[in-house]
Structure formats: structure tokens, C-alpha cells
Amino acid sequence: MRLRPATSDDLDAIRVLIVASMRGLSDGFYTSAQVESGLRHVYGPDTQLIADGTYFVIEDDGAVVAAAGWSRRATLYGGDQTKAGPDPLLDPARDPARIRAFYVAPSHARRGLGRQLLAHCAAAAGTEGFTMLELMATLPGVPLYEACGFTALERIEPTQPDGVAIPFVRMQRAVRG
Fold first, then answer.
1. Quick one: which of 10, 39, 106, 126 has the most CB atoms within 10 Å?
2. What is the DSSP letter of 84?
3. What are the pLDDT digits (tens) for 54-74?
4. 48 near 70, Cβ under 8 Å?
5. Between the CA of residue 105 and those of 32, 92, 134, 156, what are the distances in Å?
6. Looking at residues 78-104, what average pLDDT do you find?
7. How do 97-104 and 132-138 pair as beta strands?
8. What is the rounded radius of gyration, in angstroms, for the C-alpha atoms of the chain?
9. What one-character-per-residue DSSP string does 101-169 give?
10. DSSP letters of 11-54?
11. Whole-number pLDDT of residue 177
């Protein structure tokens, strides 16, 4: 398997991965209505991460089986469809870097790919002077992030445009967790 920076040529494969990951790994955490609402209104590629060079994919035999990134920008979560304006840069001296858009194919879940991507993103953020990481976790992601040293700061449950509420957990840890 190979970890590499994502490019715009990967967008179709990333979209397919997001759908497979959310539908395949959310059972017991979200209802099917919450998954489908999230796929319409929240989950999706953030092309700014790709443009910034902070989004990565893991390939297995040429197929994208995991993707994740980090960001030096203010957006905490959501794909392009959630953005409403500029996405300003963060100050590494006072702001935590964002861990963003983690997705793993169900066929490759629980093989350490999430940990590998998280370690890669944390190291890159640390290189740019960030000392803290923050993320908005989906419920299926919470156990991984807790195992990797993140602590919950708050639980939110925003209602989407279709009236469906989707719970998330905002979490944080030191870069060198």
C-alpha cells in the first residue's frame, strides 16, 4: 500500500470512498437517514485541502482505500458543499491545526490505515509549527481518535437542511500525542 498526496484526479475515487465508508462503517452509530443526510449535506471532498497539498490517499493495487488530511485553515469539518465563504489561515502559535475528512474503505478497516494517516498528518502539522490538533469526529471515528490520544471537548448535533440531526464530537490533542 502506498500513501501519497491526493490530486484533483483522485476526486471521483474519493467520492466513491466516502460513500462506501459512511454506508459501510456507520452501522450501530448512525441511522440510515443520518448517513444519507450526511452524504448529501456534510460529507464530501474539500478541494481546498487538495489544493493546499494537505490531503492524502492510501492506494492498494492502484485503488484508493483510505483518505485523510489536515488543514492550516479555519474550517473544522465538511466538504465543499458546506462552505459559505473564505477559509482563513490559522495561526500555529495559538490555533490548533485541523484534522479533516478521514475515510477508510470497509474492506480495509481496522488495518491501521487511519492511524498511519493520522500520524502522517500530525507530523506535517507539527513541521509547520502547530502544537495542537482539533477535529470534528463522526461517531464511528470516536473510538479511533480516543485510542490515538484525543479527548472530547463537546458533542454537537446540527440539524441538516432536510431536518435530520447528525451528532458529532469535537476532539483535541497535542500534535505529539
1. 10
2. -
3. 999 999 999 999 999 999 999
4. no
5. 18, 32, 23, 26
6. 95
7. parallel
8. 15
9. EEEE-GGGTTSSHHHHHHHHHHHHHHHTT--EEEEEEEGGGHHHHHHTT-EEEEEE-PBPTTS-B--EE
10. HHHHHHHHHHHHHHH-TTTS-HHHHHHHHHHT-S--HHHHHHT-
11. 67
What would the mean pLDDT of 79-98 be, rounded to a whole number?
Answer: 94
The SS3 assignment for 82 reads: helix
Would you state the pLDDT for residue 159?
98
HSE-up of residue 28 (Cα within 13 Å, Cβ side): 4
Region 26-42 average pLDDT: 98
Query: C-alpha cell of 177?
Result: 500525542
Non-local (6+) Cβ contacts of 126 within 8 A are 175, 176
For residue 140, give the C-alpha cell: 464511528
Q: Which DSSP category does 73 fall into? A: B
Q: Which residue, chain included where needed, has cell 459501510?
A: 24
CATH superfamily, domain at 2-134: Gcn5-related N-acetyltransferase (GNAT) (3.40.630.30)
| Sequence-distant (≥ 6) Cβ neighbours of residue 125 within 8 angstroms | 70, 72, 97, 133, 175
